[in-house]
Write a structure and sequence with these properties.
Among the domains are: about 200 residues, Cobalamin-binding domain (Rossmann fold, 3-Layer(aba) Sandwich), CATH 3.40.50.280; about 160 residues, Transcription Regulator spoIIAA (2-Layer Sandwich), CATH 3.30.750.200. It has about 575 residues and is an alpha/beta fold. Helix 3 runs parallel beside helix 6, helix 5 packs across helix 17 and helix 9 runs parallel beside helix 10. The strands form six sheets. The protein has a six-stranded mixed sheet, covered by helices on one side. Strands 15-16-17-18 form a four-stranded parallel sheet. It is about 35% helix and about 15% strand. The termini are far apart. Bound molecules: iron/sulfur cluster. Iron/sulfur cluster binds next to loops.
Length: about 575
């Protein structure tokens, strides 16, 4: 039945709970296994997330299996549900989460972890997996957070590590065979844990290897999408052009955990784009990947698609451009100037600190890009930087100021309303990256460095500086490198009301201080730098990259030495399998 519309009146963005959508596939009455995919943020964020969509349609395509979606409620809606005693319902069939066989949650961001617990509880499912029995669905997690699972280990029955296209059909097949027969939950979990890429925390840690789709062209991709009639964050057709990244930036989780680079062929990208544009009517096409300018068939795809895109009035968007002439030429060609701004992420203020990060962008390239952006008619240049990178000194911070000043001069030289916006954040040392051993800078020290940059630029009228709350970055650093003890603090924070904290204005540092205190956990023990000989809570997760490679990269970072990007003539020897450029002998 769904929630009565009259009850939603007065909620912030009520469409989230009764969305009007086009292209929703019918429910399969004959299904013997029912999944609910839960996105632990609000509807308009979840609907913009491509991976969630791919997995939804993949499950829908499996015989005997059906799938529905659910999204976390905003705190005002949670309050309404609790007050009325209503459960959190799926979008399609308006069923409580409790009624499904499996609830699959995507862990994209640490600051969504408390939303996961709230959604399970509202769906009628105990938040602790140890309290669940045969009456409850299996609750499984995927996404990047599943690769460092320990902080959330008490809340999930299983973690699915790696590419869902590989895992979901196998997990579904096993459950189709055994769950309807009423197999004992423990036995079922035992069977699941024997599938490659599945980690069942209740059965203890053993080495688990991430699953990797070797051939993206052959992998499932939907030929339809659900089109919402209310606004969402990324209102467009998204086509993933490749997975992985050849660059090796040492702070980037995805760069190390999605190796190797696997491209979709130009023909397949063109075919998918055409089909999705004609079946949805969207007017924007986004080519997604970690660094879309690195897609080797980009020009071929654009040449092939351009005439029909022009005819349909569809524009192309390319997130994550790099600071180089090619990106600029591309932006010009795609007429992205219509949008008025271009974003580049040099990340570091000096060539030295960029070498520490393995970012490999020269000062001259940045200067050229600044001028090029304004010369091409863009009104605003957005620059992203981070502070708190190991070995950072005063001069690296001054370097950020200097780059911003030069960009400001370039903006003035071209006149008009041209301006620069500088976005600053603090490094979050992530598991499975060379910076996993680095310290997460204290919020105080971090704020001090951010403010130093901001103050130095305060006299420049055409430069706006914003920064990510350093307390949030610090907390992310603690949560992502945590163990099960940290999970106790997450549970406390949930009980104390922490919700939707990926939205900066919702973040309440006081709740987390209290949560750590109640859980008896010292966040400093997780924020500190780690020794190379210390065991790490995610050591048992094999993402495919050798630990020896990460150690080498960490040492090289501290010495300011770079590693060339992956390619036919340059393999850094990370050890990942199925990479066409793999060189077995290590340097
Ligand atoms: S095996 Fe070599 S080329 Fe392939 S991802 Fe690893 S470092 Fe890069």
């Amino acid at each position: 039945m769904g929630y009565p519309l009259s009850a939603l009146r007065g909620l912030k963005d009520p469409f989230r709970y009764a969305p009007s959508e086009w292209g929703v596939p019918p429910l399969k009455e004959e299904a013997r296994l029912r999944w609910c995919l839960l996105f632990p943020d609000v509807y308009e964020v979840g609907m913009s997330y491509l991976g969630f969509s791919i997995l939804y349609w993949l499950l829908k395509s499996l015989p005997g299996v059906d799938v529905e979606r659910a999204y976390a409620p905003w705190p005002d809606a949670e309050e309404l549900l609790r007050r009325r005693g209503w459960p959190l319902l799926s979008v399609e069939g308006k069923r409580p989460l409790l009624e499904f066989d499996v609830v699959g949650v995507t862990l994209q961001h640490e600051m969504n972890y408390t939303n996961v617990l709230a959604s399970l509880d509202l769906g009628g499912i105990p938040v602790l997996s140890s309290r669940r029995d045969e009456r409850h669905p299996l609750v499984v997690a995927g996404g990047p957070g599943a690769l460092h699972p320990e902080p959330m280990a008490d809340f999930f029955d299983a973690f699915l590590l790696g590419d869902g296209e590989e895992l979901l059909p196998e997990v579904s097949q096993l459950l189709l065979e055994h769950r309807p027969k009423g197999t004992d939950r423990g036995e079922l979990l035992g069977m699941l844990s024997r599938l490659e890429g599945v980690y069942v925390p209740a059965l203890g840690r053993r080495r688990v290897r991430r699953r990797v789709v070797a051939d993206l062209d052959g992998a499932f991709y939907p030929d339809r999408l659900i089109v919402p009639s209310s606004p969402i964050v990324h209102d467009r057709v998204s086509v993933e052009v490749f997975r992985g990244c050849s660059r090796g930036c040492r702070f980037c989780l995805a760069g190390f955990t999605t190796r190797p680079v696997r491209e979709r062929s130009a023909g397949r990208v063109v075919e998918i784009s055409r089909r999705l544009l004609s079946s949805t009517g969207w007017e924007e096409l986004g080519f997604l990947s970690l660094s879309s300018c690195d897609y080797s068939s980009l020009m071929e795809v654009l040449d092939e698609l351009s005439p029909s895109l022009r005819e349909m009035g569809v524009r192309v968007s390319l997130p994550s451009l790099r600071v180089d002439a090619f990106s600029l030429e591309l932006a010009r060609r795609l007429d992205l100037g219509r949008k008025g701004s271009l974003t580049f992420a040099p990340e570091g203020g000096t060539e030295r600190i960029r070498d520490v990060m393995n970012k490999q962008v020269t000062d001259e390239e940045i200067r050229r890009a600044d001028r090029g952006v304004f010369a091409s008619g863009f009104e605003r240049l957005k620059l992203y930087f981070m502070v708190g990178v190991p070995t950072e000194t005063e001069s690296d911070l001054e370097g950020i100021v200097e780059i911003a000043r030069e960009a400001s001069r370039a903006a003035r030289a071209f006149g008009g309303r041209r301006s620069v916006s500088l976005s600053l954040a603090t490094l979050v040392p992530k598991p499975h990256t060379p910076f996993q051993w680095a310290e997460a800078l204290s919020p105080e020290e971090s704020r001090e460095r951010l403010l130093r940059v901001k103050r130095a630029l305060s006299g420049l009228r055409n430069v706006q500086v914003s920064y990510h709350d350093p307390r949030l970055s610090y907390l992310e650093g603690v949560l992502c490198r945590g163990d099960r003890e940290v999970g106790r603090a997450i549970l406390q924070a949930y009980r104390l009301g922490a919700r939707m904290e990926a939205w900066e204005d919702r973040f309440d540092a006081g709740i987390w201080d209290r949560a750590f205190e109640l859980a008896g956990v010292d966040p400093l023990a997780y924020a500190r730098g780690r020794g190379l000989d210390e065991p790490l809570p995610w050591d048992f997760v094999d993402v495919g990259v050798d630990r020896a490679f990460l150690e080498r990269e960490w040492r090289k970072a501290l010495e300011g030495r770079t590693t060339p990007r992956c390619g036919p003539l340059s393999c850094g020897g990370c050890g990942v399998l199925v990479c066409p450029y793999r060189r077995s002998s290590l340097p």
